[in-house]
Write a sequence for this structure.
DNA sequence: GACATTAGTGACGGATTGTTACTAATTCGC
DNA sequence: GCGAATTAGTAACAATCCGTCACTAATGTC
């Protein structure tokens, strides 16, 4: 019989340097874009994610909100952790451990701070390895959760057309969706309600504006779906 | 026009104490159970999650494997982060920030270390507030991902009956499933393959043993499902 | 050998969903 | 003014999916 360990919890504290690295995502010119800041001269890369160490009496999401607000002027409304990284990957501030946090916000015409810029996810500049990993994880997390929580609505303003909404889903899922199916599923979900406003977008028929207003669903629990596995 | 900030990244390092807190889950007597260790006398609680500070050249999952192995003798095969907590909640070692990591393992007859014990999730003893939060998050994460990744198979031995598998899903989802539907969906997913062994469990007809052997699926992508939102 | 118990499958009917094809309301070009 | 182009929105058909019921199969118990 194998030896069983005894008294295993001799836990010791160790002080490490910690960073909160923020991935702000927003639709920008028909693509999902991430907010980067110009890195100080002397570093190996010219751009980095906004980041900072959390302050003493501040939660991690709180720190992320502060960090994002420093670049954007206002904080995004939605934050979610995408994972902690503590392996050897290089971080711009040489933090031992990074907490990656993704923030979602609607497209905006407001420009970010002078030394910040939006980059499409598909055309990122060179980033520190840890930042590249965090961006990839953020994109993966958002894409995986998009049909388990109303993430997509965080990328839209308070009112939007159904075509806008479908466009965001197509961005997130990287594939085209069928209009009729999309709307039928949306209808059945009681997630949105129409406003009495319409938007004319130049050519074509004006579209009705909707708002996100989820009603309680009847608990029609479905069976197990084995076909949703990611890999 | 609002003032735009300039040069926002004046990031400063700060040293904090960090803990990796591990939630080992395993089916145990018809319920999902978590592994707890007896806390040293003098603390406010008598039990805690296994935890430690990560070592210098060790990734976070690696630390979790080491911590779990110290209690179990061998490390579970599957680990996944469930989130970092850095707010004021009390931690047994007073760590500033905790990384919560969930580990899954099959039911085992091997007893854990002398000062460790399995507790059903529904009957936990008093835990430090941060540990209680981490256990709740772990359970939530596992239950939410169960139909996006083959988590359930991590709670079973290498070969298992389809009734075993259905039982694990029922544990994770906290509801009964219909046998015929479950098997039809499983069949269509090409996730398991039959072995030529059968297991007789006392009464009733013997059951064929299967193993987890996912084949690549034809990419029949479905539309958006709005009815899977968690809350 | 009747019965209880667990495993496994076939098949019906209703619900869901992919698709096509249509109608509606606007701008643009002439 | 008026048709073409463009975008919004819907109806309806067909195929598939899925919940359910009903059955057969193989074992142990009495």
């Amino acid at each position: 019989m194998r030896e069983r360990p005894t008294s295993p919890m001799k836990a010791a504290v160790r002080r490490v340097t910690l960073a909160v690295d923020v991935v702000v995502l927003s639709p920008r010119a028909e693509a999902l874009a991430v907010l980067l800041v110009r890195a100080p001269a002397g570093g190996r890369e010219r751009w980095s994610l906004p980041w900072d160490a959390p302050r003493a009496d501040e939660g991690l999401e709180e720190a992320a909100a502060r960090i994002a607000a420093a670049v954007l002027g206002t904080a995004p409304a939605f934050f979610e952790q995408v994972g902690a990284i503590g392996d050897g990957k290089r971080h711009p501030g040489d933090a031992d451990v990074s907490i990656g946090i993704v923030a979602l916000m609607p497209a905006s015409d407001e420009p970010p701070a002078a030394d910040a810029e939006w980059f499409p996810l598909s055309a990122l500049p060179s980033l520190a390895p840890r930042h590249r990993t965090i961006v990839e994880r953020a994109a993966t997390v958002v894409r995986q959760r998009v049909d388990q929580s109303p993430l997509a609505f965080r990328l839209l303003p308070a009112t939007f057309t159904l075509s806008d909404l479908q466009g965001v889903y197509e961005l997130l899922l990287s594939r085209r969706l069928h209009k009729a199916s999309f709307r039928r599923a949306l209808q059945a979900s009681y997630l949105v309600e129409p406003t009495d406003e319409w938007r004319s977008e130049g050519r074509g028929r004006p579209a009705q504006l909707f708002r996100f207003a989820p009603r309680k669903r009847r608990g029609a629990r479905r069976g197990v779906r084995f076909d949703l596995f990611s890999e």
